[in-house]
Each structure stands twice: as C-alpha cells, then as structure tokens.
Q: What sequence folds into this?
C-alpha cells in the first residue's frame, strides 16, 4: 500500500484563489501529481545589475562633462554675426510679414 496523499481533494479551492499561500500549495500539489521536479535555481544576483547601473551612470557623466550639448551655454549665434573661428551657428529665419488684417487685442 502506498503512502497517503498529503493533499486531499477537499483542500482544493473551488473559486478564485484569494490567498497566496493556498495558490502556492495548489502549485506544489500540481507539481507532485505530474511528477514535475522542483526547480534547482539560485537566488537572484544583483551585483551584475548594480555594476551595469554604475557603468551607465559613469558613461552619462562622461558624456555630460566631455561632450556638452551646445545649448548648455546659451543659444548658438546667428550665422550672419559669427566671429572668425566659430564652428557652429544657426540660421535665423526672417519673421513672416504681417498682413494688414491684424487681430485686435
């Protein structure tokens, strides 16, 4: 004669599972009934993720320090008024001509 089943059918929840412990019990029962071996996993390791986060922060700081964005020090000068040796400038579009039918404010 075999050993008694540790889980009786009366332990099975009939409706939706509200309790996480009963959900885990149901999963263990299903695992035992279908001869599914337990997972032989390991605890999650956070050190690689912490190192990756640190590396990304260092890259971000390096970009900020050694490759600053041009808008950081004010807008680029207009191309018509650049001194000699200026590498970057911006094209300034002429303001649109206003028609005579303006809106009263």
A:
């Amino acid at each position: 004669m075999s050993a008694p089943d540790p889980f009786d059918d009366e332990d099975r929840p009939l409706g939706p599972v509200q309790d996480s412990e009963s959900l885990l019990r149901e999963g263990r029962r299903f695992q035992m009934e279908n001869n599914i071996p337990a997972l032989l996993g390991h605890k999650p390791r956070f050190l690689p993720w912490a190192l990756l986060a640190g590396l990304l922060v260092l890259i971000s700081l390096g970009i900020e320090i050694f490759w600053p964005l041009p808008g950081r020090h004010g807008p680029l000068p207009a191309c018509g008024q650049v001194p000699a040796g200026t590498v970057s400038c911006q094209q300034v579009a002429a303001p649109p001509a206003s028609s005579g039918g303006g809106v009263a404010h």
